[in-house]
Amino acid sequence: MGLIIVAASLSAVATAATPNAGGGIAYYYGQVLFFSPDGKLPYGDTDAAVKREILDSGARIVETATQPGSSHGMRPKETITELKRRGETLVYDASDVGGTFSGTIVFRDPELKSWIYWMTFKAGGAMEGSGKLSPEGIKTEKHIFDGGRPMMLKGEFKVVSERVYKIHVNEMHPSRGVE
Q1: Deepest of 4, 28, 137, 143, by most Cβ within 10 A of its Cβ?
Q2: Average pLDDT rounded to a whole number, residues 1-22
Q3: What's the confidence (pLDDT) of residue 177?
Q4: Which DSSP category does 163 fall into?
Q5: What are the chain's domains?
Q6: Beta-bridge partner residues of 155
Q7: What is the pLDDT of residues 112-134, one digit of tens each?
Q8: In whole angstroms, how far apart are CA 164 and each of 22, 35, 59, 74, 161?
Q9: What is the pLDDT of residue 19?
Q10: CA-CA distance, 86 to 72, in Å (whole number)?
Q11: β-pair partners for 85
């Protein structure tokens, strides 16, 4: 379910309450909700914990998204996504460490609070979407199309402390001896 991880990735951007576009680390926790392409029929949801690091005065953003394993007793799934700014623009190239997707994110403001993006998946298919950051957290909406199962995804993430983030990530791990 690589698409589920992608739904959590590319979700958070820094604010004044958390790190700003110049640098820092922010933590988020919430859910990704899955719907039919028209958004009317719910398919399900999953939890997600996101750590976002803004580096090199905003020239690089590294995001780690963690979600529960696909079944009880499975290790959580982690995706590391890196965004690299093109020169001094608000355009970033994005890809995950595993090479399963790549694309472009365009921020609408220098504070990196609003964005749109387009991604293609190595296995086929594409995703486009948008996101917006507020002091409370992040909301995203994405549409997956081409290849596979088309769907709409909505992400809702609240700003959390590093401690709360780590608690949620640890809860996603199965009990010892179960893996």
Answers
A1: 28
A2: 46
A3: 59
A4: H
A5: 2-172 (2.40.128.20)
A6: 32, 140
A7: 899 999 999 998 899 999 999 99
A8: 24, 28, 27, 22, 5
A9: 43
A10: 41
A11: 92
